[in-house]
Amino acid sequence: MPPSAWRGYISFGLITVPIRLYPAARESHVAFHEIHKECGTRIHHQLYCPYDERVVSRDEVAMGYEVAKNKYVLVDKAELKKLQSKSSSAMEIIEFVKLSDVDPIYFETSYFAVPEEVGARAHGLLLKTMSQMQYAAIAKVTIHLRERTVIIRPYDKGLTLHTIYYQNEIREVKDYGKFAAKDLKKQEIALAEQFAKALVKPFRPEQFKDEYQERLKRLVESKADGKPAPAHVKSPRLAPVIDLMSALKKSLAAENKSAGASKGKRLKKTA
Question: In CATH terms, is domain 6-27+84-167 a member of 2.40.290.10?
C-alpha cells in the first residue's frame, strides 16, 4: 500500500472520524529519458543565463513574476514559505450539497478516505447518511502546505475525497456552446436517439485500454529484442457529414447488423 498523503480527522458537528487519505488514481504511461545518441548516456539539463552567458547554480535562482515584458518582481522562497498554511489535522465539514448539483468539471485530484479502526462506526454513520440522502460534503483541509476546498462523496462502500478547482480556474473558451443546432428535424432526433439506445451498455471501465501505451510497449519490446518496429494500423480519414438522415440510417443499419452477428456468435457458443 502506498504511503498516506494526509492523516487527520473529518469533523461533523461533535462527531470526529479519524482517517488517512490515499491517492485514488494516478496516470500510468511509458516513460522515456533523453539519451545522447553518440554514446548512449542519459543527458542532464543545466540552468543557463543568456545575459551573463554562463551556467548558474540553483542557489543563484530566485522566483520571478512577470509584471511587464522582460520585467519581473523577484520573490524569495522564504517569503513564499511565510504565506503557506500551517499543517492541519482537521477537516471540518462546512456544508452539504446535493451530489447531482456538483459538476465533474470541478474535480481535480481524488483520494480514498480510509478510517482508523476507532472511527469505523462514526465513518459508517456518515457514509450511510450521505448515501441515503445522496449528499456530498464540502470541507476545508490543508494538504501539502496548501489550504484546499474539497468535496467528500460516497463511492463503492467508502468515502472518496476530491480537491476541486475554484471558479476562476475553470477556463472560458470563446466559441464553446455557440454552435447548438436549432433547425434539427424530429426524424433526425428520433434516429439519433434510436442509434444511441442501440449502443447503450453497462459501464465496465476494465474493458478500456490506453491503446497508444500498448503500442509503445510493443515498440520498446521489439527494439529491445532487435526486431523491426511493429506495423501501425492507420485510422481511416472521416469526411464531414452533409446528409444527417442518410448518415444516421446507415449507422443504425450497420450497428443492427453488428449486434445481430455478435448475438449469433454467442448463441452458437452456448449451443
Answer: yes
Domain residue ranges of the chain, discontinuous segments joined by +: 6-27+84-167, 181-201+240-271
Tens digits of per-residue pLDDT, 212-268? 888 889 888 998 988 888 877 666 666 566 677 787 788 888 877 777 666 666 655
> How far is the CA of 191 from the CAs of 131, 187, 239, 256, in angstroms?
37, 6, 20, 13
Over its C-alpha atoms, the chain yields an Rg (Å, rounded) of 27
Q: What is the pTM of this model?
A: 0.73
> Rounded to the nearest 5°, which phi and psi values hold at 121?
-70, -45
Question: Model confidence over 171-209: pLDDT tens digits?
Answer: 988 888 887 777 888 888 888 888 888 888 898 988 888
CA distances from 215 to 152, 222, 229, 232, 256 (A): 37, 10, 10, 8, 31
